[in-house]
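As agreed, record minuted below.
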Amino acid sequence: MGKYESMRPVNEAEVCDIVRGALVASGGLSLRGGGTRGVLTGGAVLDLSGLAGVRLYEPGALTLVAGAGTPLAEVEALLAGERQRLAFEPPDLRAVLGREGVSTLGGVVAMNAAGPRRMQGGAARDHLLGVRFVDGTGAVVKSGGRVMKNVTGLDLVRLMAGSQGTLGILTEVALKVQAIPEAGVTLAGPERGALGLACLRRALGSAFDISGAAMGAFGCWVRIEGMAGSVAYRAGRLKDLLPGWEEVPADWAMVRDAPVRGAQVWRLSVIPTEAWAVAQALPGADLAFDWAGGLIWVGCDPGLDVRAAVAGRGHATMLKGELKGEARAWGDEAPGVARLMAGVKAKFDPRGVFNPGGMV
């Protein structure tokens, strides 16, 4: 490996050299950004935090281009200086997972991270304009650009988001950013359980452009954002729709960052109307609901069969803890989906270099 024995490349060319190097043939590479999200899956650890730095920021064009190893906090501080933000509200899971480290922009994209605002604005992939990455042969691939446009064929930008480092090594990402709204209001209601989730779905199905709908130990909350006059009007109409709901101060960062605790922590994506049935099948678990029930955070002891509770209603991913036997933390895919994923993996990483034993 020569001068790259530290396994911390500082530019794209060094990443290519490492992928082509002799070490790759004897165990693969386990990709690491800031160490806050992904699970190392075997092989030599490749530290990507050296691929840092904002390359372009045009506030007027709502465009940001940065190295994949750029700390998320640095990006958010830069945007805040221009009263802008990442619209998909990436969560900080360090506390709930018991990890340290620094979240990176590439890690956020690789996990397709998103917080409460996803149901209004989408996840990370919905704001990606372009990516650069190194594939399993050591070649550089560029997809997309710096403006949003319609495309035909395979959309590699969206494919890389959520691939969890199994298809290639992200070296640079271009993102569309968003202006911070003039005003925001949270309404809280007294309902809990199935009735509380029904209220959240009612609000989400209204014409009032909800940017957050969550329920947990913190209460039952609905968030509205936008121009001050519009927020005031929509809040008033929502109070008519949900009698007894009132404006309250609210910490949405707590909702965003998985407000549950347990030896195991799970993230469940479910059909919102099935959320309470799933909850009833998880006795004793610490639960919090986001996206009007479409996302359930679960903290529990290892003995609870979370996958059985969600079977037929959604998908379960374990973020913290250990599983017995050959069970996979992100669950098993249907045979057809598994074949498709394996085929994509074979095209981008034919030698199985990246995150061996990982998602696909």
Notes: The mean pLDDT is 89.
